[in-house]
Amino acid sequence: MQTLNLEQLKAATQAGGVTGITLRGDGAAFVVSVQTQRGEAVMVTTRRQPRRFADLRKALQVLRGIGWHQCQVDAAQWRPEERALEKVARPDRSAALKAAHVAAQADADYDRWFHAKVQASIDGIKDGSNRLIPEEEWVVRRAALIARIKARQALTAQAKAAPQVS
User: Fold this and answer.
1) pLDDT in tens, 52-65
2) Residue 33 near residue 73, CB atoms below 8 Å
3) 75 vs 19, 22, 29, 56, 137, CA distance in Å?
4) CA 123/CA 114 separation, integer angstroms
5) Based on CB atoms within 10 Å of each CB, which residue in 22, 93, 101, 125 is the most buried?
6) Do 98 and 75 fall into the same domain?
7) Is 44:3 a contact under the CB 8 Å cutoff?
8) Residue 44 falls within a domain, yes or no?
9) CB-hemisphere CA count at 13 Å for 10?
10) What is the 3-state secondary structure (H, E, C) of 116-149?
11) If we measure between CA atoms, which residue out of 57, 65, 12, 28 comes closest to residue 20?
12) What pTM was computed for the model?
């Protein structure tokens, strides 16, 4: 039996090589069976396994996305009660989702900390515990910082240009 990935199915559809599509029940999922001018083919994943759709709506969305607006449904071998048996544990996805949750929590914690710091600064200006720095003082501080940075860059450039003694 022939196999087609999504891109191949899309190209075959656009070229007029697909004559029909049937969503066939296979256990608790549906498989896309493609009728082509050369015979029957099955839609596969990138790992060359039959693409299984647990949700018929998702299969219809994919087919509509490649230009198919009609298909047949063969539910003779569809066994929705087998879904619990077919469900495969995905520890890799579980770990990835947990890591994403931890990262999101860290982002939220940082946002709360940052907003608290900003609010404390604003409150300090209002109550006088923080002072506003005048523009003239900023000009002096900025010039001193730029001078330190340029001096450090010059020292680094000299060190790189000096011959290395071993």
Assistant:
1) 998 999 999 999 99
2) no
3) 20, 10, 10, 11, 78
4) 14
5) 22
6) no
7) yes
8) yes
9) 7
10) HHHHHHHHHHHHCCCCCCCHHHHHHHHHHHHHHH
11) 12
12) 0.52
Two structure tokens written together for 147 = 């001078």
Same domain, 95 and 141: yes
One domain, residues 11 and 51:
yes
Tokens of 64: 């509509």
Residue reference for tokens 């029957």: 40
Q: CA torsion angle for 45, 46, 48, 49 (degrees, to 10)?
A: -30
Residue type, 37: Q
Query: Does residue 86 carry a pLDDT above 70?
Result: no
Neighbours of 5 (CB within 10 A): 15
Alpha-carbon distance 32 to 22, whole Å? 6
- Residue type at 56? L
CA separation for the pair 73, 53 (Å, rounded): 13
Q: For residue 55, give the nearest of 23, 10, 89 by alpha carbon.
A: 23
Q: Which residues pair with 108 in a beta bridge?
A: none
Residues 37 and 65 in one domain: yes
Residue 88 · residue 28 · CB < 8 Å: no
Region of residue 96 (left: phi > 0; alpha: psi -120 to 50; beta: else): alpha
